[in-house]
Amino acid sequence: MFLVLWLFACLVAATPVPHAKRTNVPSGWSRVRQHSPDAFLPLRFGLTQPNTDMATLESLLHTVSHPDSPSYGQHWSAERVASHFAASNESISTVVAWLASSGFDANRISVNKRSGWVALRNATVAEAESLLETEYHVFVHSASGQEHVACEEYHLPAHVAPHVQLITPSVDFDAVLRVRSPHMSIDIGQPGAGTVFPHRTQAVDALLPGTEHCDSQITPACLRALYNFTYTPTLTNSENPFAIVEYTPQAYVPSDLDHFAANFSPALVGVRPAFVSIDGGSIDGAAFGASGFDYNGESNLDLEYAMTLVSGAVTLYQVGDFQMGASFNNLLDALDGSYCSFEGGDDPQDDGIYPDTLDGGYQGDDCGTVKPANVISTSYGYNEADLSAAYTARQCAEYAKLGLMGVTVLYSSGDNGVAGNGALCLTPDGEQTPSGKIFNPSFPSTCPFVTSVGATQINPGKTVADPESACQQVISSGGGFSNYFALPEYQQGAVQAYLSRNPPPYSNTTYNSTGTSRAIPDLSANGANYATAIEGGFYLVYGTSASAPVVASMLAMINDARLAAGKSTIGFINPAIYTPAFEGAFHDIVAGSNPGCGTRGFAAAEGYDPVTGLGTPQFDKLLELWMDLP
Ligand SMILES: *[C@@H]1O[C@H](CO)[C@@H](O)[C@H](O)[C@H]1NC(C)=O
Ligand SMILES: *[C@@H]1O[C@H](CO)[C@@H](O)[C@H](O)[C@H]1NC(C)=O
Ligand SMILES: *[C@@H]1O[C@H](CO)[C@@H](O)[C@H](O)[C@H]1NC(C)=O
Ligand SMILES: *[C@@H]1O[C@H](CO)[C@@H](O)[C@H](O)[C@H]1NC(C)=O
Ligand SMILES: *[C@@H]1O[C@H](CO)[C@@H](O)[C@H](O)[C@H]1NC(C)=O
């Protein structure tokens, strides 16, 4: 009896279960032959990363970011974050013991605990096939001729399966499909490639001083008056780093910064942002033929306003070389070394892969090289639908980790209202086209762990003392509901109140109307008629691209006051700003909407709305509220 039971137990433990399966071969690829049994496979096992589901991340962040939490502001060190999300010892020992019992010598097994990978040295195809009960085939991509090794399905013992997140190579087709050529690879910094870019209209004949003409021309003085934002920092930028992110080939032009400063902040003539190059980031675009508004407009706008509003104390994260370009993941790799290999690492389809093998490409791979700034503002974005849900979830978890460390991460919400970049909307089968009818929100804004910034305007004929409206000049404020991310707790009351008081006239086939998905933006600031120095002159520029650095500047100065008083940074602000205590610290925007996809979009309304969020900041009130928090 004992023997029988023991045998039975062994059988149960060893019974392999299917772990991953692919149902189709991606278009363009075809299976050409069985892989040769004695070829080597670089077999790697990505271990399950604990605590990375959205609900766990949300509750961890709540403890350090919600004003009612006893540990408000007690942010985590980078080491604590890395170890909290590192693979468990149990996962490592289970996978290693299984490999050993399958006949692999210890010297063929290597473990990287911090990054959560176990690798098998020199596994042959035959060994891998027997280990995983599978068959490996070679696939060829018809257009490029590129080969890829993959299986259809594989199995793991039942007791091992929960400890493994993914195995490479296996079912995935993460092979590089995009044909890379200079200036054509990663879309994020590329003009016209579907990212959020500011728009400009006419050249400015004359700069208008004072605050009398802010309805036709926004200047730093207008913004200071609108948001009662006058503050001189006491700390230096290295004591309280505030970073603006730009993606090569977008780059600022030094003479334009000086031209702007000469007119609006003479003390800053000759002052440059503290330059941090990531993955070969460079501002020497002219050498690559990358100049003009499309290449300089975004960077000039962001830096001219941010530097002026915070008396020069700005760091520039310039990300990506001119050959490959870069994505948000490349920035995150530099800010957190553990992210470089987290859940499989960068995706060659959507991220820059460094070292860059293209001619003249950057030979390094910046991984954990930059200590994150206290506030990080980015005026670029994807359409959520550009990316897979898995890709966005991985990146979104990383924003939660930055929040745990006390970093405020801001993204602009997009310039096409309820439509996506390029005015694209979705069809029922997920395609993005100008004739689509389904709303198309932007990412990373829809990640519940970033703060999304929309745009407002001063109405024609009105002054800085009058209420603003949702921006509907040239651009319309990106807003709406995520198709990927659930409604975070901090936003529940606000979103449900909006939907019940102002039921949108669209069915559940037009947007996720359940009231259970993340709404954007979180707040907003003026995004129309910014006088901006570009190409030696001044132009009027529009976009949530302008709004994000303005909000970021205010938050950076609140950090200045808190740090000077011996307090923590404000970190992830969303759980705080949605509390009733913060209600009076925003100008509620109740007029306008965010048209797109052949509709007038959502309507701004009393309280939260998915057009302007909670409204525009009142700096003095926010400062006071945050100074009262521990
Ligand atoms: C995991 O293993 C490492 C080294 O093997 C050890 O230092 C650490 O204490 C272990 N952690 C736990 C939670 O057991
Ligand atoms: C194992 O792989 C390495 C390169 O990764 C190679 O140099 C070595 O010869 C291989 N060992 C065997 C036994 O094939
Ligand atoms: C602007 O802020 C100051 C404090 O910095 C305050 O005294 C003043 O009343 C505020 N003005 C308005 C119009 O809210
Ligand atoms: C709406 O969003 C929620 C939360 O993300 C999701 O669970 C639900 O499936 C979505 N509904 C539809 C119809 O897409
Ligand atoms: C959408 O609404 C219709 C009509 O109210 C309802 O029958 C349907 O179940 C809803 N679909 C989803 C996916 O929620």
UniProtKB/TrEMBL annotation:
Question: Could you tell me which InterPro entries the record lists for this protein?
Answer: Peptidase_S8/S53_dom (IPR000209), Peptidase_S8/S53_dom_sf (IPR036852), S53_propep (IPR015366), Sedolisin_dom (IPR030400), Tripeptidyl-peptidase_I (IPR050819)
Pfam families per UniProt = Peptidase_S8, Pro-kuma_activ
| Cofactor info, note text | Binds 1 Ca(2+) ion per subunit.
Q: What cofactor does this chain's UniProt record say it requires?
A: Ca(2+)
Q: Which reaction does this chain catalyze?
A: Release of an N-terminal tripeptide from a polypeptide
Q: Where is the Peptidase S53 domain?
A: 217-629
Entry superkingdom: Eukaryota
Q: Which GO terms describe its molecular function?
A: metal ion binding; serine-type endopeptidase activity; tripeptidyl-peptidase activity
- Positions that bind Ca(2+): 588-589, 607, 609
Q: What class of enzyme is it?
A: hydrolase
What does this protein's UniProt record list under function?
Answer: Secreted tripeptidyl-peptidase which degrades proteins at acidic pHs and is involved in virulence.
Q: Can you name this protein?
A: tripeptidyl-peptidase II
Species of the source: Mycena chlorophos (Agaric fungus)
